[in-house]
Amino acid sequence: KNEVEQSPQNLTAQEGEFITINCSYSVGISALHWLQQHPGGGIVSLFMLSSGKKKHGRLIATINIQEKHSSLHITASHPRDSAVYICAVRPSIQGAQKLVFGQGTRLTINP
Amino acid sequence: EAQVTQNPRYLITVTGKKLTVTCSQNMNHEYMSWYRQDPGLGLRQIYYSMNVEVTDKGDVPEGYKVSRKEKRNFPLILESPSPNQTSLYFCASSLRGRGFIESYGYTFGSGTRLTVV
Q1: Which residues of B touch A43 (CB under 8 A)?
Q2: pLDDT tens, residue by residue, A37-85
Q3: Residues of A with CB below 8 A from B101's CB?
Q4: pLDDT of A2-40, one tens digit each?
Q5: Measured between alpha carbons, how far is A13 from A111 in angstroms, rounded to an integer?
Q6: Distance (Å, rounded) from C-alpha B113 to C-alpha A41?
Q7: What is the separation of C-alpha B61 from the centre of its chain, rounded to a whole number of angstroms?
Q8: Any residues with CB less than 8 A from the CB of B25 and at least 6 apart, and which?
Q9: Distance CA B55, CA B67 (A)
């Protein structure tokens, strides 16, 4: 079992729909990151969370440390949101200097 | 513009021919790291560096070397590439907080698609 699990693996929706991508992890963490990978391959950091909720434009990220779960929401989705969204955690185990990545969620927004 | 620059973007090479993928950042970040991305396996860490002259292995270091002689540069060296190193490679940097506090996000390079034949 992977330390970081994302669901769904693939998601297709119509423009304007509210999107939710989920991330569950099994280790203690010091932070959780949401990344966006464009169709061309580049990776952009969207959010870094250690508690609560963050909002940037139409994107909202939440984390529940007790339940070891995070969600990424996209409101009023648009075809340009089509990308792979990756959840990554930094384990809090002493000495851990790495990110552990989920497999990614491929999101397609149709016009 | 704050960025991480990787070169080359694409590279096709033959087995055994030494190559270097360069990574440079202009943000004075302390932490730099290399990842490879493979279908079905996701992103995995190869090596990382906490600061100049401080490097350590990640999860999949076999067949790779790195160096950190200057803060801005963190090249990835494949001394004798093999076909199983065909992958998409990313360099990333971060202004790390003290100790284990994760205070900042990561900036990724554009990626290097390497094919070893």
Answers
A1: 90, 92, 108, 111
A2: 998 888 999 999 888 999 999 999 999 999 999 999 999 999 999 999 9
A3: 30
A4: 789 999 999 999 999 999 999 999 988 888 999 999 988
A5: 9
A6: 9
A7: 11
A8: B3, B4, B5, B32, B72, B74, B93, B107
A9: 7
- Is pLDDT at B98 greater than 90 in this prediction? no
Checking DSSP bridges between strand A105-110 and strand A19-25, what pairing results, if any? unpaired
Q: Which residue matches tokens 């250690």?
A: A50
Amino acid occupying residue A42: G
Nearest to B42 among A50, A90, A104 (CB): A104
Nearest-angstrom CA–CA distance, A66 and A93: 16
Closest alpha carbon to A45 in A36, A58, A55, A54: A36
Q: Determine whether the interchain pair A48/B107 forms a contact, defined as Cβ–Cβ distance below 8 Å.
A: no
Task: Tell me the DSSP string of A70-96.
Answer: EEEEESS--GGG-EEEEEEEEE-STT-
Joined tokens for residue A59: 């994107």
Residue A110 CA to residue A77 CA, distance in Å, equals 9
Residue B99, both tokens: 């100790």
Residue B105's pLDDT is 78
